[in-house]
Amino acid sequence: MLQILASLAAAVDGFLAAVLVPVGIVILLSGLDDLVLVVVCLVDTFRRGRYRDAIIGSGSFRPEKRLAIFVPCWHESAVIGKMIEHNIAAIHYQAYDFFIGAYPNDDPTLDIVRELEPRFANVHLAVCPHDGPTSKADCLNWIYQRMLVFEEDHGVRFDAIVTHDAEDIIHSDSLRTTSFYLDSYDMVQIPVLALPTPWTQFTHGVYCDDFAEFQIKDMRVRGLMNSFIPSNGVGAAYSRKALQRLAESGGNRIFEPACLTEDYENGMRLHNLGCSQIFVPLRRGPSDIVATREYFPDTCTKAIRQRTRWVTGIALQTWERHGWTGSLAQRYWFWRDRKGLFGSPLSFATNLMFGAGCATWLCSLLCGQPWVLLQQHLPSLLLMGTFVLQMIHLGARMFCVSRVYGWLYAMGVPLRVVWANFINCSAALRAIGRYGLAHWRHEPLVWVKTEHAYPSRTALFQHKRRLGEVLVGSHYIEPGMLDAALANQPAGMRLGEHLVRLGLINEADLYEALSLQQSVPAGRVEPFQINTKVARSLPRRVIHAWKVLPFRIAEGNLFLASPEIPTDELSHELRAFTRMALQFQLITPANFEELTRSLL
User: Fold this and answer.
1) Has residue 460 been placed in a domain?
2) Shortest CA distance to 386 belongs to which of 14, 34, 39?
3) 476, 509 in Cβ contact below 8 A?
4) Tell me, what CATH number does 562's domain have?
5) Quick check: 575 pLDDT over 70?
6) What number of other Cβ atoms are within 10 A of residue 79's Cβ?
7) Cα–Cα distance, 92 to 154 (Å, whole number)
8) Domain check: are 477 and 532 in the same one?
9) Which domain holds residue 44?
10) Were 584 and a residue from 83, 475, 566, 578 both cysteine, which residue would form a disulfide, CB within 3.0 to 4.6 Å?
11) What DSSP character marks residue 161?
12) Domain co-membership, 433 together with 512
């Protein structure tokens, strides 16, 4: 048995020795290519000092530009309502409207958006004239047409549009930052980052690593090399000048319907049309990095599905449509964006080769024989060079991840890289096969749907405006009075309660502000509005412990009144008693006591 094992190991070692040199040369060249980005970043850092962005403080008294936020949807009924509710409550900006695109054959999404329109005056439905799915670009084009009709009907004009997806968390300062840069640029790209998840979620962790490295290193070098800035698909703003240029050059099509990655295409188109572009470098706001956040796929299958679309659009479609035209810098970035077609499978192959080499080494120990691979005349300088370059790339990736998620999370990068290689390899091979099959069959490539999830209420809390900001912004209290109250706030006492005790606001004002902050309806509930049977559907211990009182059932929804902000823990507790959708309404503590006394 050991003899068979030794023979097999020797055969594997012979194969590895034969392919190591050509593979090593390709890996070395690719590693040198990656080293260029690190060197450019370091040189720019030493030349200009610490990498900093212009400070956009509260003292920047510039009038807000009117922005139209486009949100294309296909089967997004599970997330679009939460997305709108949260972002309207969190955004620290006034002059904006949401235009949500949906298809006639997507009734659940249409129903949700139609429910949102009467609740929020700045939310508008844009129905595509044909069934879906088509492409994301096609949906965006019809949203644009709906915006033009809205402008004509209401006598307004938007200064720019901003693209977002149905799962996005828009930073409270994102639109203000966008408006600031639109004074000087035709296209503004806000950073996009994955929401942090436990380190055990390897697939989502790959997105955390990829976006941190791409936003901090790659996008920065693109700007330094005067290449085109690809839109990230979300958080991308286009000025009216940019929209006009795109329309004139594309037969009135702002987004190219045939493209699966219209964001990448538009970045290149605008650069070639002479429009100025900027990727806003990462900077920290009062509580977090100013960036669009979202959850990305957390399973291997979903990740491969999404990345297949990215590879198909960025590498294959763009290659077919534009070849290798443009400036030297543009052609260089074409190379970097397309080399994954062979680089991703090769990277995964090297992982397998490394594993095979470790296995044959163990076999040699078990059999008591010399390791055959060690006896081969391999170019040590080549292997050492590839190893050093890989360590530099790994270190740069860990540094980028540490800037966003901390060093503890960055320590997991070496493990996640192997998993990333498998996902990217699968996506590249699937994209090549899918693209080739579509061409052979003469079929169009349609919107490949990725299932989206929206963060829980607890996860969203850090992205909401603080209560003090809402109170000052809505003129419930003067800034100086708030500062004085904060300075004397007793430990353990909530700010709202403290302000009420000081007589600076009343309970009604507090709950109106909480309603704005949390995007939860607020208002008094009268005892006669309570359905007694519904109210007694929860045990008394639950009502008293959680301070929540069910009072009505309508259209499959259970309506509950509470003086407390609803939490994920409360929703989990209530799931033991009902499977209906939960709709909360904030009421004052006095109103809650009145209701419970009258019923219990």
Assistant:
1) no
2) 34
3) yes
4) 3.30.300
5) yes
6) 23
7) 24
8) no
9) 2-49+341-441
10) 566
11) E
12) no
Helices (H), 368-412: 372-375, 380-405, 407-410
Q: How confident is the model at residue 454 (pLDDT cuts 50, 70, 90)?
A: very low
CATH of the domain at 183: 3.90.550.10
**Residue bearing tokens 């998993």:** 419
Regarding whether 126 and 262 lie in a shared domain, the answer is yes
Q: Tokens 């708030």 correspond to what residue?
A: 482
Contact status, residue 587 vs residue 581, Cβ threshold 8 Å:
no
Residue 137, C-beta contacts closer than 8 angstroms, at least 6 positions apart: 253, 255, 256, 257, 258, 259, 262, 265
Question: How many other CB atoms are found less than 10 A from the CB of residue 320?
Answer: 10
pLDDT at 456 over 70: no
Tens of pLDDT, residues 481-535? 888 888 888 888 888 888 888 888 888 888 888 877 776 778 888 888 888 888 8
Question: Do the domain assignments include residue 318?
Answer: no
Name residues whose C-beta falls within 8 Å of residue 470's C-beta, 6 or more positions apart in sequence: 513, 516, 517
Residue 513 lies in a domain: yes
| Closest CA relative to residue 517, chosen from 454, 472, 572, 456 | 472
Which two structure tokens, joined as six digits, stand for 16? 């590895």
Closest by CA to 311, choosing from 323, 301, 299, 303, is 303
Task: Indicate if 6 and 98 belong to the same structural domain.
Answer: no
What is the tens place of the pLDDT at every residue in 125-158? 999 988 888 888 889 999 999 999 999 999 999 9
Last residue of a domain, one of 407, 441, 475: 441
Asked whether residue 351 falls in the same domain as residue 393, the answer is: yes
Evaluate if residue 287 carries a pLDDT over 70.
Answer: no
CA distances from 546 to 475, 490, 535, 568, 595 (A): 31, 24, 14, 12, 15
Judge residue 72's burial from the number of C-beta atoms within 10 Å of its C-beta, 0-12 exposed, 13-18 middle, 19 or more buried: buried
Of 566, 556, 450, 463, the residue nearest 115 (C-alpha) = 556
DSSP letter for 528, please.
G
By the 8 A CB rule, do 586 and 563 touch?
A: yes
- Is residue 448 packed enough to be buried (19+ CB in 10 Å), middle (13-18) or exposed (0-12)? middle
Same domain, 142 and 291: yes
Q: Are residues 172 and 126 in the same domain?
A: yes
Q: pTM for the complete prediction?
A: 0.76
Rounded Cα distance between 521 and 533, Å, is: 23
What is the rounded distance in angstroms from the CA atom of residue 142 to the CA atom of residue 252?
A: 11
- CA distances to 15, 27, 303, 357 from 354, rounded to whole Å, are 13, 14, 25, 5
Q: What is the rounded distance in angstroms from the CA atom of residue 55 to the CA atom of residue 437?
A: 50
Could you please report the per-residue DSSP string of 248-276? Answer: HHTTT-SS-TT-S-HHHHHHHHHHHTT--
Does 534 lie in the same domain as 431?
Answer: no
Residue corresponding to tokens 């003899």: 3
Q: How many other C-beta atoms are found inside a 10 Å radius of the C-beta of residue 584?
A: 21
CA 531 to chain centre: 42
**Residue found by looking up tokens 């055969």 in the block:** 11
Q: Is the pLDDT of residue 58 over 50?
A: no
Which is nearest to 69 in space by CA: 268, 288, 292? 292
